[in-house]
Amino acid sequence: MGMKSLLRVGYLMMVVQGLLSVFLPKKALKLATAGWRVGFENVDELEPREWYVEVTKIAGVGMLAGGLTGLLVTSAENAEKERSKAQMAAGESASEHDSDADTDESDDDDGGPVTIDIDDDE
Prior knowledge:
Layout: H1 3-23, H2 25-32, H3 34-37, H4 50-89, H5 94-102
């Protein structure tokens, strides 16, 4: 499993956590705190305060937006990579397209600094 695949799995997990946090915030809090509750007694009697439930919902919206954005970006990168592979297989390369664009530019540009005279000597 490559790094891109792991990244997509992470984004997908973020989307799922965001959905849980937005639509089932109390369940999401219970799931998130399940690990540390093991060492305590009477944790089933604990109830989160209302403001904390609201903050969980807001954080869920952020996780949902971040996860979906990450999935869209990685999908676009994969599509671009596939498109460039298809162009390479068809005999086209990016350097052929770049050389066509460079023919219109002048060859006497040395890449040095450009000076502009702004004095009005009229």
